[in-house]
Amino acid sequence: MPKTVFFDNKTPPHIATLVLVAALGPLAMNIFLPSLPAISEYFSADKSVVQLVVTVYLFTTAPLQLLLGPLSDYFGRRAVVLVGIAIFFIGSAICLLAPTIEWLLAGRVLQAFAVVGLVIGRAAIRDMVDSDTAASMLGYVTMGMTLAPMLSPIIGGYLDEQFGWRATFWVIFGFGLVVLLFVWRDLGETHFHRADSLTGQVRAWPALVRSRRFWGYSLACAFSSGAFFALLGGAPYVATQFYGLSPSAFGAYFGVVGVGYMLGNYFSGRFSQRAGINRMMMIGCLASAIGVGLGVVLIWAGIVHPAGFFVPIILLGVGNGMTLPNGNAGMVSVRPHLAGAASGLGGFLQIGGGAFVSVLAGWVLGPDSHPYPLLFLMLTTSIIAVVATLYVIAVDRQLNALSAADAASAEASGPTP
Fold it and tell me: Taken in order 186, 74, 325, 173, is the CA torsion positive or negative?
């Protein structure tokens, strides 16, 4: 692999480019969350319909990853990223001009192509380094891109109050232009051992599906992020209808979750090579469950201030920031030659599960949008993530024991004549 040279697209991408391309999707996901009530009022649409602005994005993102991963294994990482961002631009333009809620939803479907940055970014990093180093590098990349979900709700809330909800989509469009420039000038190809055919890629999927480790990593990531997606789907309505927060105030409170996520990413970047990906995942999943559980306890104790809901959720951000980089690194390292397909299939499970949980979040919230149903849903998914991580650890121990037994047997039998 040639040495990275910044803004030279004949060399592997600089970490700044990986951060920006990975941040495009979270920005498009988070910046307009404070505007959901305003969008509902503007289009005279029911809450459940406007909730689809989040849900349709997630449901489109999930199957896209099944396609984008194998395409990048066949055509290369660079070409797929460029095409994906171009489609994202078309979707952003539709959102800006949308005359009805149906047109806005159509634009969100195309904006979902922003996920190309996450899928190809994971695969490109695995092309460049080994699994433990990939976890560390993913941690630092995710820490940088966390500025998008951390700051975008704050910016989105301010823009909504000052200029209306469409202003947030102008920011998405402008940021996409910056990302396109960096990708064009800096993201060199990292995948040089191309798949023979797309059908060959699909035929290789059973090797992933049969891997217990792949399922363990994927499910741990899916349910860990599921708690966060539940927060995305339910928090805007809990904040406005139960706590009476303005869009800008909600954005500020929601931003603290991003602070926790960035801190978890820092821990991943700092300690994953030393501690190993499985241990880091376990600590992250436990942190998420403890944070959500603490939120339940505080509300049960009668604390009705919004800080009682949002501050404990910082631990959910910390936990996701530790679990996802390490789980994703493990996922794409099960079969390194299928890193793109593994990233896509694992991402499908992760985002598809998140979309389902986001729908559940909208369904469990009653007319008063009390935090209890949302918190219990988040706690359940966090506990399942802990169980999935314990499963990965058990499988790893079993495989290591079998490998040690095989090595001992080979040594005891002596040299083969």
Answer: positive
Do residues 194 and 73 make contact, with C-beta atoms less than 8 angstroms apart? yes
The pLDDT tens digits of the residues spanning 279-336 come to: 999 999 999 999 999 999 998 898 888 888 888 989 998 999 899 888 988 887 777 6
Q: Which residues, in sequence order, are CB contacts of 162 under 8 Å at separation 6+? A: none
3-state secondary structure of 318: helix
Q: Is the pTM of this model over 0.85?
A: no
- What domains sit in the chain, N to C, each tagged with a CATH number? 15-404 (1.20.1250.20)
The DSSP code sequence of 186-200 is H------S--S-HHH
Q: Is 208 helix (H, G, I), strand (E, B) or coil?
A: helix
Amino acid present at 298:
L
pLDDT digits (tens, 9 = 90+) for 330-362: 887 777 666 667 777 787 787 777 777 877 777
Burial of 357-392, coded b for 16+ CB within 10 Å and e otherwise, reads: bbbbbbebbeeebebebbbebbbbbbbbbbebbbbb
Structure tokens given for 215? 């399922």
| Residues contacting 196, CB < 8 A, separation 6+ | none
Q: CB-hemisphere CA count at 13 Å for 200?
A: 8
Residue with tokens 């860990």: 224
User: What is the maximal distance between C-alpha atoms in the chain?
Assistant: 82
Do 51 and 109 contact (CB within 8 A), yes or no? no
Which residue has tokens 């949302």? 374
How would you class 205 by CB atoms within 10 Å of its CB: exposed for 0-12, middle for 13-18, buried for 19 or more? middle
